Amino acid sequence: MRTSTLARPLVVVAAAFALSAGALPGDAAPPGVGDEIDGAGLDGSGPDGRGGHHGRPPAKVPVAVGTGGAVATVDPDATRVGLDVLRRGGNAVDAAVAAAATLGVAEPYSAGIGGGGFLVVYDAATGSVQTLDGRETAPAAMGSDAFVEDGVAIPPEEAVTSGLSVGVPGTPATWQAALDTWGTLSLRDALAGATRVAERGFVVDRTFAEQTEANADRFADFTSTAALYLPGGSVPRVGSVLRNPDLARTYRLLARHGVDALYTGPLAREIVDTVQAPPVAPGSTRVVRPGLLQPADLAAYEVVPRDPTLVTYRGLDVYGMAPPSSGGSTVGEALNILETVDLGALDETQALHHYVEAAALAFADRNRWVGDPAFVDVPLDELLSDGFAAERACLIDPAAALPKPVAPGVPDGTYGPYEPCAPGGDAATETPEGTSTTHLTTADRWGNVVAYTLTIESTGGNGIVVPGRGFLLNNELTDFSFTDTQGGADPNLPGPGKRPRSSMAPTIVLQDGRPLLALGSPGGATIITTVLQTLVNRLDLGMPLDQAVAAPRATPRNGTSIQAEPGFPRAGLEALGHVFADTPEIGAAAAIEVLDRGRFLAVAEPERRGGGSAGVVRPRR
Ligand code: GLU
């Protein structure tokens, strides 16, 4: 197994071979969320040349209440496969891996085995929260100037679609590590449902068609990608069925031989070949830089088990993902700042003013201080200390917005004075991030809970499918700063083996030591504010979880304007000096709340990204 501390021999390969090929989770699935796919004609090779026969897109149910376990994802097939695992006796970790593998099929532009992610688990057996860092790593040959040519940063749009931006995928190793550590299923069994979806196909919905359309130009520039996602040269029609037999074969390869097939086996060589010589279509004029990845980089990959971040908030314990993600530190710092006031007692404008300012201050600190802890000294304890939060909270003026960007604070253990507030230095700029990614949350009847955010970075990753293997590669290394924006202090420059800073924020909230809430979202840096705002909505502003998720969002990230969805109440904030910019939607949360009497409330988006899919094992009000 590929973890730095959880050594596991290759026995897993023999064990996988020894398994019977009998009924597996996902075979003969009982009716559940998303089971409305028409059974007939799922061969995907229909005469229209645009993805095959037609089906009805599975129904999407954004809210479910009941017992026996729960799953919330963006996709009905993934939720159905996760629920099926729970019904058959699997636990929340098994269900999370099975659902994630299905997202690799039906949400392939957001996540898959070509990418990475972060998984946070409440382990009921030990009563503890633990995490896995499955972030992609830079190749050993990657120096701090890897994205600079002739003294100038290469254009981001060229970096996005390149071999250069591909990090070593962490997702397959994360699945194996999660199953080995907390699961009950073999990788083979956990992949069975997803393999079946890849084989039989999924019904193309509007979101998938729109994402394909948005990527059509660059997909067309790679022979392998065009063959899979532009069948017959066109964007698959809504309602058509898209099969991915190559991915089904790849999953079977992993099932038989373990994830070493990808890190040291045949897939490793194929990934390296694809990165070093991308399959550019004849006649394409796109500039596609090759990458630096070598087989040794894949062979060296390790999932890192990490202590979670922890802050207490209104008497609850909020656990998140530690660096190299900035999710846990930034959500945690903002909560600490907010805890200095009683948000629930403030009027709406003042409550949101504090939300906006706390997020901006925490982002200033994130940009200055957070990077891969194997390479930079991240002052995590201080960033999450009450003393530092008090020093930062002191800057918030109830009568006026702080001029943006605000400068980072100095988390050095010495805080104050508070009158006047301690000044900061120069603001650190935020590097741009994509808006892809996906999040899923699972819970089981034994009390285990998983919050798992995974990604291939951009929607569509780097746009390059590994030929014959059915999955896209990530472009995660574009999450590095391309040049030093902080006068020698940038914690997020590329480096050999380094993990780029992330914003992924899978979060689990405990009350009296037991899970109360688990949530997360996609959306690049907006992930942090989506998680923060949802927590504030639920814990401070009295909204039930489904309303907390559905409420209009704003994403204050210490810029000169705040992106906000239509419906976010701006007028009072504008009167305080906040400046807003319109954005149609932010994030796509998936959350679970543990209710009384063994019940769960599973919540997905009602509208964003076309709506998500929540389900429970036994519906019960
Ligand atoms: N690369 C982003 C991160 O790690 C996630 C991709 C996205 O959501 O845009 O934060």
TrEMBL record:
The record's InterPro entries line, in alphabetical order, gives: GGT_bact, GGT_lsub, GGT_peptidase, GGT_ssub_C, Ntn_hydrolases_N
Region called Disordered, residue ranges: 30-60, 482-504
Cited Pfam families: G_glu_transpept (PF01019)
Q: Domain of life here? A: Bacteria
Under the heading SUPFAM superfamilies, the entry gives: N-terminal nucleophile aminohydrolases (Ntn hydrolases)
Q: Single GO molecular-function term?
A: leukotriene C4 gamma-glutamyl transferase activity
Signal peptide residues on this chain, from the entry's feature table: 1-28
Q: Which reaction does it catalyse?
A: glutathione + H2O = L-cysteinylglycine + L-glutamate; an S-substituted glutathione + H2O = an S-substituted L-cysteinylglycine + L-glutamate; an N-terminal (5-L-glutamyl)-[peptide] + an alpha-amino acid = 5-L-glutamyl amino acid + an N-terminal L-alpha-aminoacyl-[peptide]
Q: What is its EC number?
A: 2.3.2.2, 3.4.19.13
* Post-translational modification remark: Cleaved by autocatalysis into a large and a small subunit.
UniProt keyword annotations, A-Z: Acyltransferase, Glutathione biosynthesis, Hydrolase, Signal, Transferase, Zymogen
The pathway entry for this protein reads as: Sulfur metabolism; glutathione metabolism
Quaternary structure, per UniProt, is:
This enzyme consists of two polypeptide chains, which are synthesized in precursor form from a single polypeptide.
Question: Known PANTHER family for this protein?
Answer: GLUTATHIONE HYDROLASE (PTHR43199), GLUTATHIONE HYDROLASE PROENZYME (PTHR43199:SF1)
The UniProt similarity line reads: Belongs to the gamma-glutamyltransferase family.
Name the UniProt record assigns to this protein: Glutathione hydrolase proenzyme
